[in-house]
Amino acid sequence: MLLELEKDSFASGQIGSKLWLCRELEKTLPSTTPLTYWVLGGWIGMLPFLIRSREVLPVKSIRSFDLDGVASEKAEIINNLWVWQEWQFKSFRADCNELDFNDGGPFYSDAPDVIINTSTEHMPNQKWFENIPEGRWVVLQNTDMKIDDHVNKVTSVEQLKEKFPLSQTHYSGELYFDYGNETSFKRFMLIGQK
Ligand SMILES: C[S@@+](CC[C@H](N)C(=O)[O-])C[C@H]1O[C@@H](n2cnc3c(N)ncnc32)[C@H](O)[C@@H]1O
User: In terms of residue numbers, what domain contains 153?
Assistant: First the structure.
């Protein structure tokens, strides 16, 4: 079943990190212009679901990209309300290192105004970041959580800034998930313009 298989996406750390992102982005982005969002490593689409459900940020469309085709199909189930409304949401199986951020055409989209990657710790290759044009809005998260899949993790927000240099940083911070034991971890976030 969908929820059974993806229970990790509903873990407190996952949802808490995405709500934090929504709160800070809502304070940062212009509140009147509908924008196009591309989410890299978007998994099963919980972030687009939360952005849309909060009904604060005006959205033109959201595109989600993930290497995992099954996760990508699930993202369209979770965000079906917006798939149905003229593809305001659509998810694609794709390597984000191969995306052209100046050409939304293959994805029935405009070029993205905002590029979000909350899976940076999973991506050893940073070509996707190098390919983002200067001036574009970027939202990045990473974590110090110690698991084998985290092949590109950082241990501080300063390290995240070094890894992903931005020309303007509008928000930088960390959120501590204190479980009172060794599973506690920090999540780091940058919001700015490349
Ligand atoms: C475990 S999930 C997401 C964890 C993360 N904390 C989150 O929810 O934002 C990481 C996702 O990144 C995807 N991924 C890793 N490398 C990728 C790449 N080069 N292009 C697209 N997706 C990628 C994986 O397929 C996986 O679905």
Answer: 2-122+135-175
Question: Is residue 192 situated within a structural domain?
Answer: no
Predicted confidence band of residue 57 (pLDDT cuts 50, 70, 90): very high
Which band of pLDDT confidence, cut at 50, 70 and 90, is reported for residue 147? confident
- The total domain count for the chain is 1
Q: Residue 59: CB within 6 Å of ligand 1?
A: no
Site to probe by mutation for ligand 1, drawn from 8, 17, 40, 43 as the one with most ligand atoms within 8 Å of Cβ, is 43
What pTM did the predictor assign? Answer: 0.96
> Is 130 contained in some domain?
no
**Closest atom of ligand 1 relative to the 9 alpha carbon:** 8
CATH of the domain at 89: 3.40.50.150
Ligand 1 atom nearest the C-alpha of 95 is 20
Given a cut of 70, whether residue 50 has pLDDT beyond it is yes
Report the nearest atom of ligand 1 relative to the CA of 71. 27
* DSSP string of 130-187, one letter each residue: HTSPTT-EEEEEEE----TT-TT--SSHHHHHHHS--SEEEEEEEEEE--SSTT-EEE
Q: Indicate whether 187 belongs to any domain.
A: no
Q: How far apart are CA 80 and CA 99, in angstroms?
A: 24
